[in-house]
Fold this protein.
Amino acid sequence: MQKNITLIYGDCSSPEIVTQAVRVLDKIAEKHGHTFTYTRAYMGGEAIDKFGDPLPAAELEKCKNSDSVLLGAIGGPKWEGLPGDQRPEKGLLRLRSGMGLYANNRPAKIWPQLADASPLKKSIVDKGIDFIVVRELIGGVYFGEHKTIEENGEKVAIDVMPYAEHEIERIGRIGFETAMKRRKKLTCVDKANVLDTSRLWRAVMHRLQVEYPEVEYSEMFVDNCAMQICKNPAQFDVIVTENMFGDILSDEASEVTGSIGMVPSSSLGEGTCGLYEPIHGSAP
Protein backbone atom coordinates (compact mmCIF):
# COMPACT_ATOMS: atom_id res chain seq x y z
CA MET A 1 0.00 0.00 0.00
CA GLN A 2 1.28 3.45 -0.94
CA LYS A 3 -0.25 6.53 0.66
CA ASN A 4 0.57 10.22 0.79
CA ILE A 5 -0.02 11.62 4.27
CA THR A 6 -0.01 15.35 4.95
CA LEU A 7 1.38 16.28 8.36
CA ILE A 8 0.31 19.39 10.26
CA TYR A 9 2.54 19.50 13.32
CA GLY A 10 0.56 22.21 15.10
CA ASP A 11 1.48 24.43 18.01
CA CYS A 12 2.91 24.29 21.55
CA SER A 13 3.26 20.63 22.61
CA SER A 14 1.72 19.26 19.40
CA PRO A 15 4.91 18.76 17.33
CA GLU A 16 6.21 16.37 20.00
CA ILE A 17 3.07 14.25 19.72
CA VAL A 18 2.86 14.24 15.92
CA THR A 19 6.56 13.28 15.75
CA GLN A 20 5.84 10.20 17.85
CA ALA A 21 2.77 9.39 15.75
CA VAL A 22 4.97 9.41 12.64
CA ARG A 23 7.35 6.97 14.34
CA VAL A 24 4.39 4.63 14.83
CA LEU A 25 3.36 5.02 11.18
CA ASP A 26 6.91 4.27 10.04
CA LYS A 27 7.00 1.13 12.16
CA ILE A 28 3.65 0.01 10.71
CA ALA A 29 4.95 0.62 7.19
CA GLU A 30 8.11 -1.35 7.91
CA LYS A 31 6.23 -4.28 9.42
CA HIS A 32 3.54 -4.59 6.77
CA GLY A 33 5.39 -3.46 3.63
CA HIS A 34 3.59 -0.13 3.18
CA THR A 35 5.06 3.08 1.81
CA PHE A 36 3.99 6.32 3.48
CA THR A 37 5.13 9.55 1.83
CA TYR A 38 4.85 12.62 4.04
CA THR A 39 4.05 16.18 2.96
CA ARG A 40 4.44 19.02 5.45
CA ALA A 41 1.64 21.60 5.62
CA TYR A 42 1.26 24.60 7.91
CA MET A 43 -1.90 25.61 9.73
CA GLY A 44 -2.72 27.51 12.89
CA GLY A 45 -0.17 29.46 14.88
CA GLU A 46 2.85 28.14 12.99
CA ALA A 47 1.22 29.23 9.70
CA ILE A 48 0.57 32.69 11.15
CA ASP A 49 4.24 32.96 12.12
CA LYS A 50 5.42 31.72 8.72
CA PHE A 51 2.88 33.25 6.33
CA GLY A 52 0.77 35.71 8.34
CA ASP A 53 -2.27 33.54 7.58
CA PRO A 54 -3.71 30.66 9.68
CA LEU A 55 -4.28 28.56 6.52
CA PRO A 56 -2.96 29.80 3.17
CA ALA A 57 -4.71 28.38 0.09
CA ALA A 58 -1.59 26.47 -0.97
CA GLU A 59 -1.47 24.67 2.38
CA LEU A 60 -5.13 23.70 2.11
CA GLU A 61 -4.47 22.27 -1.37
CA LYS A 62 -1.73 20.04 0.04
CA CYS A 63 -4.29 18.57 2.42
CA LYS A 64 -6.96 18.11 -0.24
CA ASN A 65 -4.51 16.37 -2.57
CA SER A 66 -3.35 13.81 -0.01
CA ASP A 67 -4.77 10.43 0.99
CA SER A 68 -4.98 11.41 4.64
CA VAL A 69 -4.10 14.25 7.00
CA LEU A 70 -2.58 13.87 10.47
CA LEU A 71 -3.23 17.00 12.52
CA GLY A 72 -1.73 18.17 15.76
CA ALA A 73 -3.66 20.59 17.97
CA ILE A 74 -3.33 24.28 17.18
CA GLY A 75 -3.51 27.54 19.08
CA GLY A 76 -1.98 28.88 22.26
CA PRO A 77 -1.41 32.01 24.37
CA LYS A 78 0.99 33.51 21.81
CA TRP A 79 -1.82 34.20 19.33
CA GLU A 80 -4.75 34.95 21.66
CA GLY A 81 -4.63 38.72 21.10
CA LEU A 82 -5.17 38.52 17.33
CA PRO A 83 -8.46 39.55 15.69
CA GLY A 84 -10.96 36.73 15.33
CA ASP A 85 -10.44 36.16 11.61
CA GLN A 86 -6.67 35.90 12.07
CA ARG A 87 -6.55 33.48 15.00
CA PRO A 88 -5.21 29.91 14.65
CA GLU A 89 -8.67 28.41 15.14
CA LYS A 90 -9.91 30.16 12.00
CA GLY A 91 -7.46 28.03 10.04
CA LEU A 92 -8.93 24.88 11.57
CA LEU A 93 -12.47 25.89 10.58
CA ARG A 94 -11.30 26.66 7.04
CA LEU A 95 -9.51 23.31 6.86
CA ARG A 96 -12.63 21.37 7.87
CA SER A 97 -14.85 23.34 5.51
CA GLY A 98 -12.36 23.28 2.63
CA MET A 99 -12.03 19.50 2.85
CA GLY A 100 -15.80 19.04 3.24
CA LEU A 101 -15.40 17.15 6.52
CA TYR A 102 -18.90 17.23 7.97
CA ALA A 103 -18.72 14.17 10.25
CA ASN A 104 -16.52 14.20 13.36
CA ASN A 105 -16.33 10.89 15.22
CA ARG A 106 -14.97 10.88 18.77
CA PRO A 107 -15.06 7.68 20.80
CA ALA A 108 -15.02 7.69 24.59
CA LYS A 109 -13.94 4.38 26.06
CA ILE A 110 -12.58 3.51 29.48
CA TRP A 111 -9.50 1.29 29.37
CA PRO A 112 -8.52 -0.72 32.47
CA GLN A 113 -5.14 1.03 32.55
CA LEU A 114 -6.88 4.44 32.83
CA ALA A 115 -9.74 3.50 35.12
CA ASP A 116 -8.08 5.12 38.13
CA ALA A 117 -7.54 8.33 36.15
CA SER A 118 -11.28 8.88 35.69
CA PRO A 119 -12.68 11.55 38.02
CA LEU A 120 -15.88 9.50 38.39
CA LYS A 121 -16.64 7.17 41.28
CA LYS A 122 -15.41 3.62 40.87
CA SER A 123 -19.00 2.36 41.08
CA ILE A 124 -19.83 4.39 37.95
CA VAL A 125 -16.66 3.51 36.05
CA ASP A 126 -17.12 -0.19 36.77
CA LYS A 127 -20.39 -0.15 34.80
CA GLY A 128 -18.32 0.55 31.70
CA ILE A 129 -17.88 3.58 29.46
CA ASP A 130 -17.92 2.90 25.73
CA PHE A 131 -19.73 5.32 23.45
CA ILE A 132 -19.03 7.55 20.47
CA VAL A 133 -20.02 11.15 19.77
CA VAL A 134 -20.93 11.77 16.12
CA ARG A 135 -20.67 15.53 15.73
CA GLU A 136 -21.74 17.63 12.75
CA LEU A 137 -18.58 19.57 11.93
CA ILE A 138 -19.08 22.28 9.28
CA GLY A 139 -22.40 23.87 10.21
CA GLY A 140 -24.05 25.58 13.15
CA VAL A 141 -22.83 28.62 15.04
CA TYR A 142 -19.17 28.13 14.06
CA PHE A 143 -20.04 28.55 10.39
CA GLY A 144 -23.38 30.35 10.59
CA GLU A 145 -24.21 33.74 9.22
CA HIS A 146 -22.78 36.63 11.22
CA LYS A 147 -24.99 39.68 11.76
CA THR A 148 -24.62 42.98 13.56
CA ILE A 149 -27.56 44.35 15.51
CA GLU A 150 -28.00 47.52 17.53
CA GLU A 151 -28.75 47.08 21.21
CA ASN A 152 -28.98 49.99 23.68
CA GLY A 153 -27.33 52.25 21.14
CA GLU A 154 -24.37 49.90 20.60
CA LYS A 155 -23.61 47.58 17.70
CA VAL A 156 -23.39 43.95 18.79
CA ALA A 157 -22.15 41.04 16.64
CA ILE A 158 -24.25 37.88 16.80
CA ASP A 159 -24.00 34.46 15.21
CA VAL A 160 -26.98 32.87 13.46
CA MET A 161 -26.87 29.06 13.39
CA PRO A 162 -29.29 27.71 10.82
CA TYR A 163 -29.00 24.12 9.61
CA ALA A 164 -30.34 22.98 6.26
CA GLU A 165 -32.26 19.69 6.20
CA HIS A 166 -29.66 17.96 4.03
CA GLU A 167 -26.91 18.85 6.52
CA ILE A 168 -28.88 17.24 9.34
CA GLU A 169 -29.84 14.22 7.25
CA ARG A 170 -26.29 13.32 6.20
CA ILE A 171 -24.94 13.42 9.77
CA GLY A 172 -28.10 11.74 11.07
CA ARG A 173 -27.57 8.82 8.70
CA ILE A 174 -24.01 8.41 9.93
CA GLY A 175 -25.37 8.35 13.48
CA PHE A 176 -27.89 5.63 12.66
CA GLU A 177 -25.39 3.59 10.62
CA THR A 178 -22.80 3.84 13.38
CA ALA A 179 -25.38 2.60 15.87
CA MET A 180 -26.21 -0.31 13.55
CA LYS A 181 -22.56 -1.42 13.74
CA ARG A 182 -22.48 -1.14 17.53
CA ARG A 183 -25.19 -1.82 20.11
CA LYS A 184 -28.03 -0.30 18.07
CA LYS A 185 -28.72 2.59 20.45
CA LEU A 186 -28.75 6.20 19.23
CA THR A 187 -29.35 9.37 21.24
CA CYS A 188 -29.98 12.66 19.43
CA VAL A 189 -28.85 15.55 21.62
CA ASP A 190 -30.35 18.99 21.08
CA LYS A 191 -32.06 21.95 22.75
CA ALA A 192 -35.49 21.59 21.14
CA ASN A 193 -37.26 23.26 24.07
CA VAL A 194 -35.53 26.52 23.15
CA LEU A 195 -34.07 26.44 19.62
CA ASP A 196 -35.99 26.28 16.35
CA THR A 197 -33.00 24.66 14.66
CA SER A 198 -33.12 21.83 17.23
CA ARG A 199 -36.77 21.25 16.43
CA LEU A 200 -35.75 20.90 12.78
CA TRP A 201 -33.15 18.34 13.89
CA ARG A 202 -35.86 16.32 15.59
CA ALA A 203 -38.13 16.44 12.56
CA VAL A 204 -35.39 15.14 10.27
CA MET A 205 -34.27 12.48 12.76
CA HIS A 206 -37.86 11.24 13.15
CA ARG A 207 -38.05 10.82 9.39
CA LEU A 208 -34.79 8.85 9.33
CA GLN A 209 -35.85 6.73 12.30
CA VAL A 210 -38.40 4.97 10.12
CA GLU A 211 -35.57 3.65 7.92
CA TYR A 212 -33.69 2.14 10.89
CA PRO A 213 -36.30 0.23 12.94
CA GLU A 214 -33.59 -1.93 14.55
CA VAL A 215 -32.08 1.10 16.31
CA GLU A 216 -33.34 2.09 19.75
CA TYR A 217 -33.72 5.82 19.22
CA SER A 218 -34.06 8.48 21.92
CA GLU A 219 -33.67 12.23 22.36
CA MET A 220 -32.12 14.28 25.14
CA PHE A 221 -31.61 17.96 25.87
CA VAL A 222 -27.93 18.94 25.81
CA ASP A 223 -27.83 20.17 29.42
CA ASN A 224 -29.29 16.89 30.64
CA CYS A 225 -26.84 14.95 28.46
CA ALA A 226 -23.91 16.81 30.02
CA MET A 227 -25.17 15.70 33.43
CA GLN A 228 -25.88 12.10 32.36
CA ILE A 229 -22.37 11.65 30.91
CA CYS A 230 -21.06 12.21 34.45
CA LYS A 231 -23.87 10.41 36.26
CA ASN A 232 -24.38 7.32 34.10
CA PRO A 233 -22.19 7.19 30.98
CA ALA A 234 -22.89 3.46 30.55
CA GLN A 235 -26.35 4.30 29.18
CA PHE A 236 -24.90 5.77 25.97
CA ASP A 237 -23.89 3.98 22.78
CA VAL A 238 -23.94 6.59 19.98
CA ILE A 239 -24.66 10.28 20.47
CA VAL A 240 -25.40 12.40 17.39
CA THR A 241 -25.50 16.15 17.74
CA GLU A 242 -24.75 19.52 16.20
CA ASN A 243 -21.39 21.26 16.04
CA MET A 244 -21.16 23.30 19.24
CA PHE A 245 -22.91 20.77 21.45
CA GLY A 246 -20.66 18.01 20.10
CA ASP A 247 -17.53 20.07 20.72
CA ILE A 248 -18.36 20.48 24.40
CA LEU A 249 -19.82 17.05 25.09
CA SER A 250 -16.98 15.13 23.43
CA ASP A 251 -14.40 16.94 25.57
CA GLU A 252 -16.41 16.15 28.68
CA ALA A 253 -16.70 12.53 27.56
CA SER A 254 -12.94 12.28 27.07
CA GLU A 255 -12.25 13.48 30.58
CA VAL A 256 -14.57 10.97 32.24
CA THR A 257 -12.58 8.22 30.50
CA GLY A 258 -9.33 9.44 32.04
CA SER A 259 -7.78 12.04 29.77
CA ILE A 260 -8.48 14.02 26.63
CA GLY A 261 -4.99 12.94 25.55
CA MET A 262 -6.12 9.36 25.15
CA VAL A 263 -8.94 10.15 22.71
CA PRO A 264 -8.60 9.81 18.91
CA SER A 265 -10.71 11.72 16.41
CA SER A 266 -11.57 11.29 12.75
CA SER A 267 -13.23 13.90 10.56
CA LEU A 268 -14.72 12.53 7.36
CA GLY A 269 -16.76 13.72 4.39
CA GLU A 270 -17.88 12.52 0.98
CA GLY A 271 -14.35 12.13 -0.35
CA THR A 272 -11.72 9.54 0.51
CA CYS A 273 -9.37 11.89 2.36
CA GLY A 274 -9.92 12.12 6.10
CA LEU A 275 -8.46 14.22 8.88
CA TYR A 276 -7.15 12.36 11.94
CA GLU A 277 -6.13 13.83 15.26
CA PRO A 278 -4.61 12.67 18.53
CA ILE A 279 -6.87 14.85 20.66
CA HIS A 280 -4.84 16.53 23.37
CA GLY A 281 -5.14 20.29 23.03
CA SER A 282 -2.25 22.74 22.85
CA ALA A 283 -3.26 25.20 25.55
CA PRO A 284 -1.50 24.92 28.93
Notes: The radius of gyration is 20 Å. The CA atoms of residues 106 and 164 lie 23 Å apart.
